[in-house]
Amino acid sequence: MSLGLIASDIPLAERYDLALVDLDGVAYRGHEPIPNAATGLGGARAAGMRLVFVTNNASREPQSVASQLTELDIPTSSDEVMTAAQAAAALLRTRLEPGARVLVVGGAGLFTAVHDAGFVIVESADEEPVAVAQGFAPELGWAQLAEAAYAIQRGAWHVASNLDLSLPTARGFAPGNGSLVRAVQVATGVEPSSAGKPSPTMYHLAVERAGASSPLVVGDRLDTDLAGARSGGYPGLHVLTGVNGGRDAVLAEPGLRPHYIGADLLSLLEPHEAPVQAAEGWWTSGPSAARVTDGALELTGPQGVDLIRAACGAAWATVDAGGTVDADTVPELAVGNP
Q1: What is 85-194's CATH number?
Q2: Residues 24, 220, 225, 306: which is the catalytic one?
Q3: Nearest Cα residue to 315 out of 270, 273, 268, 282
């Protein structure tokens, strides 16, 4: 699949039969709705696109997630939610037999997923668990992290639901599961396995569950959502409502690049233009253009998604040809999102 942006002459909701949609920063922000999310997803459903919400959050039950989405005017059933807790349980099954002892450090969603996978849940390293399943929960403290460290030092397999260092909330970015996992990793010197994005495990499970033939990944984070799309061989739509903005996309390494860029979830209902190389090194998209000259990014045209697409075309082509782009010459590239 192309390492650059690709075009779709029809709305994405008509081209793809399933959207694998991230939650935090895409469908909602903390407990607050994101503008146009309900309209975009409702329109996608009306066009025949199915939805599965795929989240690195392992603390909550799928039904709890579905209820929150429904309250935000995004009607959702629990079987339309795939959590990192479910993916972590699936990863545990690849090496452990049912009945194996697992120390769970996390929230209700992780406890349920590990239990439903047939494992015996223990609370202490002294109960000799063969694995530690670690996921985020706001109530986690030092005592639980210490038990995880003790068990891992004694040989338990460390499985993390995800490695996100930060977590978007209505008040800003808070420490995510990756930050807590890193504390255990520093204490033990053992690198954990991870079931969450950017591993494509959850995407594969969701696609298999839905029986989809043409899935599209939708996310706001390049290092998890879009990297997982690339590693899994799926096209990815980067919406600019969460962690990573347009500047991040322009500077993205090849393995983190999206295939499409949109301001928000309304972009599921729109065709997408790919930047086109023009004369004198310029790349154009709509009324906007960009080029790289002696490592410096030059831009012309109004702020918006077209300018970001043009900048991505120019910057990515330069890097792929062996050149460099001076990050100091790349502005924030706003699209007007709240």
Answers
A1: 3.40.50.1000
A2: 24
A3: 282
